[in-house]
Amino acid sequence: MSGQQLSDRPRSSLHPDDVYSILSPFGALVSLIEESAETSIATTDVVTIGRALYENAMAKVKELSEGSGPG
Fold first, then answer.
1. pTM
2. Which structural domain, as residue segments, surrounds residue 50?
């Protein structure tokens, strides 16, 4: 049902550069998680960083979806 609702919505003008800028920090997070297994980085620190990245990404997606982004 939700797929049908999404198809009724107008297409977003989300640019590939926007998608890249939203998702690229998560690659860094994956690297940090891999390193944390080999170093003394606390799991709670990795989770805190991951949560901040997620919240920032979602805020950017919301901003772009509302059309208040640049362009």
1. 0.48
2. 13-65
